[in-house]
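Sample pair:
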Amino acid sequence: VQSGAESSVYVVDAESKARRVSVKIGRRLPGAIEIRSGVAPGDKVISSGQITLRPGIAVAVNFNETNAGAD
């Protein structure tokens, strides 16, 4: 999510709620953006539906193995 000069993503917290975190981005490739900091291995980053998300909203996780561990 881009807001002015700040970039952020939504992650799923331990209570299955959306939480917005600031990130620093690196390279941009077609269909992919490198996140250099702000999330950790194992964080569940929400990759679709961000327009309707708000911090604290309950979310359901649909794990997509196709993108798991993508470099």
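The two ends are 20 Å apart (CA to CA).
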